[in-house]
Amino acid sequence: MLVLGLETSCDETSAAVVDKNRTLSNIIATQTEHIEFGGVVPEFASRAHIRQLPTIVRMALKKADIQFCDLDGCAVTYGPGLAGSLLIGLLFCKGLAKSLNIPWVGINHLEGHIMAVAAEKEAMDFPYLALVASGGHTLLVKVDKPLQYEIVGRTIDDAAGEAYDKTAKILGLGYPGGPVIERHAKAGNARAIDFPRAMLDKNHLDFSFSGLKTAVLYYAQSLSSQERQDQVNDIAASFQQAVIDVLVEKSMRALERFKIKNFILSGGVARNSTLRDAFSYVCTANQINFRVPAPELCTDNAAMIARVGHIRLHLGESSENTLDVKPNLSL
Ligand code: KG4
Ligand code: ZN
Q1: ∠ Cα 243 245 249 (to 5°)
Q2: For each of the chain's 331 residues, which pLDDT tens digit applies?
Q3: Mutation to probe ligand 1, out of 77, 244, 271 (largest number of atoms < 8 A from CB)
Q4: Is any atom of ligand 1 closer than 6 Å to the C-beta of 267?
Q5: Is 6 helix (H, G, I), strand (E, B) or coil?
Q6: Rounded distance between C-alpha atoms, residue 327 and residue 46, angstroms
Q7: DSSP for 197-214?
Q8: Residue of 14, 269, 304 with the most ligand 1 atoms within 8 Å of its CB, for mutation
Q9: DSSP class of residue 268?
Q10: What single string gives the DSSP state of each residue in 20-43?
Q11: What is the pairing mode between strands 128-133 and 262-266?
Q12: Could you give the C-alpha distances from 132 to 129, 146, 185, 190, 191, in angstroms and in order?
């Protein structure tokens, strides 16, 4: 079965083709029109999706060496995300499925992130724990059975990726914050500044990152512009270490609490090589089976949506034409 996946929930326009075991193509166009605004401008995002999606889909089919008529099904993100952006993908998918007379299925973007590892190799053994760390979400999810998700921890304010983006803005480093903070952090001392590790003293598995961002803001405001320039690498490294310490500690606590031995790291923040290394180290030390998708499958992409779509369509699931976008959809 050949499935086309579409992802337009935020500022990536992406299309992918998968069959039973392989990803045949995964074309991702990251919109650059938001950089000068320091964040995603929803109206610009929808317009860019409209402009780009038909070409991206054609590129995905070409790379997979197939034609529209070879498709057996179609899958699309219908939430969570920006309403206007989601709508472009959803309407495209509905139209395509109708014209080809094939089934289609709406996919939860967060499920896509968790299943991104399966877009690469075989799926993870059950039960497993997944950490989704993206620009909009920070979730700890317990997965005992296929396609059943139980959220056991979440952020009570900013998401981890949002903290990266806001910190980069405070430091004048531009958008998106993750990659640029990672670059500066590599040249800095992670122990230079003792930023807060929120909620580590609490027994629950929730996160909070807004205090950390505020601590960076106050610290930066206490410096002269020359000092800020001199210390930018140390601030980036110390901020990043605080994020990593909290993500690792809470994930390990959850694994221990639920006696789970399999762990997936996912979402845009999982692209971070220092975070990947930290989890790899601690999982090996604790005999936890650790999986993280390839970097390009961590940030938004259609291969992860196509993979979940393939699984669900194969089980006989399909969506009705009445399905609408759900910007606040939860797992
Ligand atoms: O999953 P994603 O592509 O979109 C959402 O679903 O939100 O995640 C985007 C987030 C952004 O906040 C971005 O700053 C962060 O992932 N990110 C990173 C890195 N690359 C992207 N964070 C830390 N290190 C990175 N290398
Ligand atoms: Zn995402």
Answers
A1: 125
A2: 999 999 999 999 999 999 999 999 999 999 999 988 888 999 999 999 999 999 999 999 999 999 999 999 999 999 999 999 999 999 999 999 999 999 999 999 999 999 999 999 888 999 999 999 999 999 999 999 999 999 999 999 999 999 999 999 999 999 899 999 999 999 999 999 999 999 888 889 999 999 999 999 999 999 999 999 999 999 999 999 999 999 999 999 999 999 999 999 999 999 999 999 999 999 999 999 999 999 999 999 999 999 999 999 999 999 999 999 999 999 9
A3: 271
A4: yes
A5: strand
A6: 14
A7: -TTTTSSS--B--HHHHH
A8: 269
A9: G
A10: SS-EEEEEEEE--TTGGGTS--HH
A11: parallel
A12: 10, 17, 22, 23, 26
Q: How many residues does the chain have?
A: 331
Q: Which residues, by Cβ under 5 Å, contact ligand 2, an ion?
A: 134, 300
The structure tokens 């929120």 sit at 198
Q: How far is CA 130 from CA 51, 52, 113, 148, 150, in A?
A: 34, 32, 9, 12, 10
Q: Residue written as tokens 């610290």?
A: 219
